[in-house]
């Protein structure tokens, strides 16, 4: 098993959600953090605002790719954390609906694992900024679940 896979497995075994995020380079670049959601008992994923993430400087608005990256990574991390067996989620289908521009502030995301079977996991996620009742984007994804030993991490 690779060094990254071992770090990931250790983070999952100890419940270190920040350690899981740290194993994913793009998640580190975006600054994604997994936080406890006190209202639901689940997790919220936060992408802190940085000027480098702005796609339209006139508004200013975050680049749509960073919002999509947050949603996809949050869903993958949610599957990783929720799985009882060490299996890596590979995206096989991803769709996103943008509902409004993401302004120059932190983005928050909540995921819902719809189904996790032997080979496929289905997840949906919602992204918002100030008010969870005014979402910025909504995404759905299907992931192929592969054993850590079958994957090159």
Architecture overview:
The protein is an alpha+beta fold and 153 residues long. It has a single domain (3-150), classed as Thiol Ester Dehydrase, Chain A (Roll), CATH 3.10.129. The chain has helices at 3-14, 17-22, 25-30, 64-82, and strands at residues 33-36, 43-47, 54-56, 61-62, 87-98, 107-116, 120-128, 137-147. The strands form two sheets. It has a six-stranded antiparallel beta sheet. Strand 6 and strand 7 form a beta hairpin. The chain starts with a helix and ends in a 6-residue tail after the last strand. Residues 61-143 form the Acyl-CoA thioesterase-like N-terminal HotDog domain. Pfam families: 4HBT_3.
Write the layout of secondary structure elements.
Elements: H1 3-14, H2 17-22, H3 25-30, E1 33-36, E2 43-47, E3 54-56, E4 61-62, H4 64-82, E5 87-98, E6 107-116, E7 120-128, E8 137-147
Antiparallel strand pairs: 1-2, 2-6, 3-4, 5-8, 6-7, 7-8
Task: Please tell me the overall pLDDT.
Answer: 91
Strand order of the largest sheet: 1-2-6-7-8-5
In whole angstroms, the N-to-C terminal distance is: 9 Å
Predict the CATH topology: Thiol Ester Dehydrase, Chain A
Gross morphology is: globular
The Cα radius of gyration reads 15 Å
Quaternary state, please?
A: single chain
Biggest sheet statistics:
6 strands, antiparallel
InterPro entries: HotDog_dom_sf, TesB_ACOT8-like_N
Domain Acyl-CoA thioesterase-like N-terminal HotDog: 61-143
Protein name: Thioesterase superfamily protein
